[in-house]
From TrEMBL:
Protein's UniProt name: WYL domain-containing protein
PROSITE patterns assigned: WYL
Residue ranges of domain WCX in the record: 274-315
Native organism: Lysinibacillus irui
Taxonomic classification: Bacteria, Bacillati, Bacillota, Bacilli, Bacillales
Xref: PANTHER family: PROTEIN PAFC, PTHR34580
Length: 322
């Protein structure tokens, strides 16, 4: 009797597990596999159906006559479709945000949760990993740890390695949010000891360690620095303070500016020029501005304008013999 009950338990669990994975259950095949009658399999299926109803799962058992199998149908359609999963996979790969081992694990888990036939599963599981990713260290634990501090409004202390430095610097911060931009994650925070009342972007791959302190912060955000607004002021592969810029755009479509700089505001325009202002974190914006050639003229800040002029002159020197 014990062996019979164990056999039944294994049989029911096996069917339920496969149903949850999106497979169909054929009564005749199950009866042959487990060497029992089809009526026994039907009773097992009825028990699974009763359990689903009692547990109030968002699915129900349905018989697909064309395939002659029982399948789980998700009532609220709260699972990702195969098309959605493939799109997310492509975005993850293009972001280059994760180390290869993490990327592989996440993609495999995403693909395994999709109800797809063998051909579609092959598409989801195709070799996506022949891509170069410069990231060597996982940031996932750090992102989670700092995100918890943000939700609890706790001051943190980080060991931050500035560019060209050998040893990290200890910095106390009021963390606001984490942003992904230009292949990197950034922590946006107030420097606890700074007299400047502006948020600063810190590249998270430069954070060697972080610690929660005992004191909380209650500094309210002004309308100007709401978290959702901070996400529009993108860092450009560089850390630094929030930088206001003003420039003229002389190209064909001002949508180019709005697409690249979500915080941009069009102040005025005429037939050939658009006068914009925007805010970004750090001076990494300089490389993008230069990439736009003669379509953009930076007006402010004057220091950035002078840097761009100096860079253009240096470029001219590189081509003086041509």
């Amino acid at each position: 009797m014990v062996d019979s009950q164990q056999s039944k338990g294994y049989r029911v669990l096996s069917m339920f597990d496969r149903l949850m994975d999106g497979h169909g259950i054929n009564k005749k095949q199950e009866a042959l596999t487990h060497q029992v009658g089809e009526k026994t399999i039907q009773r097992d299926i009825d028990q699974i159906r009763a359990y689903i109803a009692k547990a109030k799962l968002d699915c129900h058992l349905q018989y697909a006559r064309s395939e002659k199998v029982y399948k789980l149908i998700h009532t609220n359609n709260n699972r990702l479709s195969k098309e959605q999963v493939l799109t997310i996979i492509k975005i993850l790969i293009a972001s280059k945000a994760l180390v290869k081992s993490e990327l592989s694990t996440i993609i495999e888990k995403l693909a395994s949760n999709v109800q797809a036939n063998k051909r579609e599963q092959m598409v989801l599981n195709e070799n996506h990993f022949d891509v170069d990713t410069y990231r060597k260290q996982s940031l996932i634990p750090l992102i989670w740890r700092i995100s918890e501090a943000i939700s609890k409004k706790i001051i943190i202390q980080i060991d931050y390695l500035h560019e060209d430095d050998i040893t990290p610097t200890e910095i106390m911060l009021q963390p606001l949010t984490i942003i992904f931009s230009e292949y990197d994650f950034y922590l946006i925070a107030y420097d606890y000891h700074s007299k400047k009342d502006v948020p600063i972007a810190y590249r998270m791959d430069h954070i060697q360690d972080s610690r929660e302190l005992t004191n909380k912060f209650y500094k309210p955000f002004t309308d100007h620095f709401q978290v959702e607004e901070l996400h529009k002021r993108k860092p450009f592969m560089d850390a630094g303070e929030l930088l206001p810029i003003r420039f003229l755009y002389k190209g064909k479509s001002p949508k180019t500016i709005f697409n690249r700089l979500p915080s941009a505001k069009l102040l005025s325009q005429n037939d050939s020029e658009y006068f914009f202002e925007a805010e970004v974190f750090g001076i990494g914006i300089k490389m993008w501005l230069l990439s736009q050639g003669a379509t953009i003229e930076v007006l402010e800040p004057i220091e950035l304008r002078e840097e761009i002029i100096a860079t253009i002159q240096a470029i001219q020197q590189n081509y003086r013999c041509i």
